[in-house]
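_Per-residue structure_
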Amino acid sequence: MWSMSEDVGTGGLFLRSHCPPDPGETLEIHLQDPWAGEPMVLHGEVVHRRERTKAVLPGEGSRRPPGAGIAFGELSPAQRDRLGAILSREALTKPEESRPKDDATTRDQDNGEEGQVFQVLEDPDEIRKVFDCLCKKIRPVRLKRLGGQICYTTYFRRVVGVPASLHVQAEAVRLKDFDSVFSGKIPFVLHFDLEEHSYVFSLSEHPQTMGGDWSLPLPWRVYYTPDRRSPRYGNEIKHPLTVEFPDPSDASLHRVKNVLDISFGGLAFKNYPGEETYSPGQSLSGVRICDFDHVCRKTDGVVRHTSFVCLPDGEVFQKVGIEFANDGASGLEEVPTVREGELEQIDGSSSILKHLKRVASNRVKILTGLDHSILFSDGRLRAEKRNGGVELTITSRLLSQNPESDFIQARLSYHYLFHGTYHFFSASTRKQNGLLLLEVPTLINRAKRRKVVRVRPEGIVQTRFRFFHPVLGRNITLPVRDLSIRGLSFDSDYLRDLFWRGFRLRSCQILLGDEYYPLGSVEIRSLVQSVTENGEWERHCGVEFLDLPAETERHLSAHILRKSNPQIRAPTAERIESLWGLFNRSGFIYPSKMAYIRKIRDEIDATWKKLLSDELPFYKQIVFREGEEELGTASAVQVYEDTWLLQHLAASSHPVKLIPKFVMMGLAQFLMENRDIKYLITYFRKENSFPRRMYAGFLERFPLEEQLLFTKHSFLYLDLDQQTKLMGQRRVSATRPSSRIVVGHATEADKEIIENYFQKRLHPLLIRSRSLTRDVLHLPETSAMFRAKGLMRERSCLVAKQGGTLVAFALLENSSAGINLSGLLNAFSIQTIRCDGKLAGEARKSLLDATLDCYRSWRARVAICLTDEEDLTDYLDAGFVKEKEYVCLSWSRRTYKGYYDYVQERFSRFEERQQRKPEELVSDPLSL
């Protein structure tokens, strides 16, 4: 293992590790001093262990790093003297000969670009323009102590001062280990990328000064060069990627790493302390790149560079860059996730055109990328008649806006999920007017995913499968044996009825209840024969749905849910009063929430009637019903472009039945079946013990890196009907014409700054799940779906500017009353960007006044602020009351199956306890 320690003494050290060794275990420690001398070999024993946990919730005290405390064994006099020298402050002073030289070669080597010639920029005006642009774009600046091992990140705020003495204001840098203990000024090398150029310069600074907000003189000389690296795509923002490969030192071990960035020729991944270490030149075989839950590319690679990175939030990891193999058998190639015999093909020009037209009409999201790369981008396919043929075009923002040097005409790969089937093909493509024009492919590959829930029809009226047999020339109706969202099997003597593998049936239908629903085309995938108990032969066929209509898919999903959970039902608009009774009996609606609901009860009832009157693509609610009484309910709603909110889980107590289990598993089944749901969020109060125990236990059992995230929010409440007269006077004075702050709606340029702000401040999972990129900031697709059903779900953005410079912004969410009973979808938040305390307060107050005016114009009765800020003074002065605190759990699609399995396992233990005999319970003291 490797690690970095900040706690070292003459008697021992604390070793950071995600997998700490057990107490009593003996270790051989190779302690490396900061100046790369020969490592000192020591022996020690583990005396205590601090477990790694993912279940620590916000506000429960500081999270201390996991690891183990090591006590050194007996030291020789030479070892004791050397260890004492390393720990003394005097020994940590860099030798004089390491002072930076003022030439391009030194900076060239420090920047890791050996052999590259830098150009010199010495014009003060041009240097000022570069740094002004850097501050405006909020680009990260990387710095490293000359001769040091760790690369840090900071951000420059603004350039201030008179022309003769200009300074750049910078954010704090939390130096680690030996970098922070120097007493005098030491040399640092800083570099950043801006507008297709890489810049580098050096400075000398006290490490103690950099611990807070600090400033540096505007450099008089800056070296720069065109950025020659391959274009990189931040897959952490849009598509969470992982890379998997066998451990190079032990092929029996399988390594899974999170991808930092990726390009045409390679990628970089994170490697944490306590894990294996990597070095340049190391070969990696069998590298697989995974997009969500499927492996999409594979190749061999070699480690080209490694570095230690320390982010502003204190996260420390090793950044490992690998280069893909260029050609040969190990070149980058497609990997469909199929088992043997499951890969199929669509061929024939007419079949391919018909399929692509259906894909275009359903507006399926398509991942587009250059061959021999994993540079994916979302796009939409359009198929239009042109010059007697069909013209296929892809709108792909990332690839269409790349420089022309990338490609004018090339062969691209296309990947998409259509009706549950993973499709991919390759086609010659050229750029034209921002669009990608592709030739009709000659072959489309597809692979089916089969991990789905299957149910068997029961009762006198069985589910039936009807189709037209193209050989026999007549309609045939046969009973269904089992059914899933992907296909079905039916009883048939396939020898007599002339069926074989690959045989296609068209214009098929399925009987559900009293109504037939269209299935489109199906394909025979399996022919099975077996012997029954009475010795007779039994034969049946399995078919796969090829182009299942969306409406039929929703009915099938609801039917499977009812069959697999018999007491789970979809509520109807006629039973709204029963739902209110359930919420009151279960304690879901507590007094403070009831006060908020009472004001808008009529509006909530109107919203519920629309939500429950039909199957909606953006809303799902289920109830556990016994007889005519609802005993439990849960709902989920699409709140952002790719994200659903899990909400309103309520259950009455029952002496035998575990109602929460059926409700949670029923809703989880729907979420797993819905392939468009990429992220989930759920809020719960800190004092609510049930979700707290469930989620904490799940995180302990299934620790998934960067796929789960806890955040804490304060819930602030203001009654707009009873707002005080003093608040109104304060609002008038804050918006008088002489104010320095101007409030308005965000422009496209403002959205770019806001996007950069979020990328700098927030975890990538939060950015993806909250749709906080500029192209989806206003939730275009989600808003359109709600409007089509007469409902509202919108997000607006207000900005506060001083002299044309963005100072702060506010995100305002507005939804139809009752979609969320706690008002979480009608809340706002305010963020400030690069401003002093006085100006920040003025901007916040101006935005707060404008926000309240907006909610009044929307006829809101209350204003709700959901914020993670610590200082709530401005809100409390405005009349807001802090009512409660919420903890929000954000998770990606990769965690759904694990959570479903965990819920089954946890409740099965309770069911086993309930089924024990009374004497077993008494004899087992743990059961009491």
About this structure: Residues 129 and 159 are 10 Å apart (CA to CA). Residues 89-115, 233-239, 729-738, 916-928 have pLDDT under 50 and may be disordered.
